């Protein structure tokens, strides 16, 4: 590993893992791999963390194919090279998610979550790691504020009662631009093929808004996360 990776992102991952007690010795962690850049970066970071910290934990990679037939061959090869078990699970839900009135993205996430829970039980993992990062966190926060009038975003760790699942998000302090750079510099494997809904939702509109704000206020992402972490009842009605 290049030494400056510590400062660039690995210390931020150590910090989130420590601040929120995300990983403990002996954990068995199922890493959700979509074929996209965020989740392969997550897997790469966890490999580096394991090599460069006192923490000793197991990792298993999981890709759920919802019928998109994303080509994960190079990802599979990367995992094998790093001695990490890989699970490829087919659940063809394409017809189901597009026939319903609700948004296909909402239904897709729900059904994927169910499948992840089932597989986690089958292989005996006690935590699920997801590739949500700092920019996702800020965008989700803005989306909820603008579209639903709520102060709300996902948490660094959460417990899903329905499925009895512990979810961890070790990338909450890492910005998307850094992820893009490392994925490209390290030539991390991406799945080939993509979701038809990609970039067609409100999310891409908020991406634009965020870029616009950051042009004038470059530390907006950091300020947002600081505000969320230091939230106090006294400052709001
Ligand atoms: N098909 C899938 N199989 C397994 N895990 C998945 C799958 N799709 C998403 N995930 C997990 O859920 C996380 C959030 O999903 P989302 O669709 O928002 O991905 P994303 O933010 O675009 O990330 P990526 O760049 O990895 O696609 C991913 O980072 C990944 O950990």
TrEMBL record:
Alphabetical keyword list: ATP-binding, Isopeptide bond, Nucleotide-binding, Transferase, Ubl conjugation
GO biological process, one term: tRNA processing
Xref: SUPFAM superfamilies: Adenine nucleotide alpha hydrolases-like
Molecular function in Gene Ontology: ATP binding; transferase activity
Cross-link (Glycyl lysine isopeptide (Lys-Gly) (interchain with G-Cter in TtuB)) at residue(s): 112, 199, 202
Any Pfam family matching the protein: ATP_bind_3
Keyword Protein biosynthesis: no
CDD domains the UniProt entry points to: TtcA-like
Domain tRNA(Ile)-lysidine/2-thiocytidine synthase N-terminal: 28-203
Top-level taxon of the source organism: Bacteria
Binding, ATP: 32-34, 38, 64, 131, 136
Signal peptide: none
Name the UniProt record assigns to this protein: tRNA 2-thiocytidine biosynthesis protein TtcA
């Amino acid at each position: 590993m290049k030494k400056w990776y510590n400062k660039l992102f690995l210390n931020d991952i150590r910090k989130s893992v420590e601040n929120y007690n995300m990983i403990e010795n002996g954990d068995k962690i199922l890493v959700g791999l979509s074929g996209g850049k965020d989740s392969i970066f997550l897997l790469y970071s966890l490999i580096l963390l394991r090599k460069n910290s006192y923490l000793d934990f197991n990792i298993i990679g999981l890709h759920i194919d919802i019928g998109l037939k994303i080509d994960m061959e190079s990802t599979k090869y990367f995992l094998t090279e790093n001695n990490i078990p890989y699970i490829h699970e087919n659940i063809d839900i394409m017809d189901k998610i597009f026939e319903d009135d609700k948004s296909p993205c909402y239904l897709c996430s729900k059904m994927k979550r169910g499948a992840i829970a089932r597989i986690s039980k089958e292989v005996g993992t006690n935590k699920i790691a997801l590739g949500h990062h700092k920019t996702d966190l800020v965008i989700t926060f803005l989306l909820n504020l603008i579209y639903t009038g709520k102060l709300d975003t996902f948490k660094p760790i959460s417990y899903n009662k329905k499925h009895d699942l512990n979810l961890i998000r070790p990338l909450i302090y890492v910005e998307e631009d850094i992820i893009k750079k490392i994925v490209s510099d390290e030539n991390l494997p991406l799945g080939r093929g993509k979701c038809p809904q990609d970039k067609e939702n409100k999310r891409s509109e908020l991406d634009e808004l965020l870029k616009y704000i950051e042009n004038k206020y470059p530390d907006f992402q950091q300020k947002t996360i600081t505000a969320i972490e230091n939230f106090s009842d006294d400052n709001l009605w």
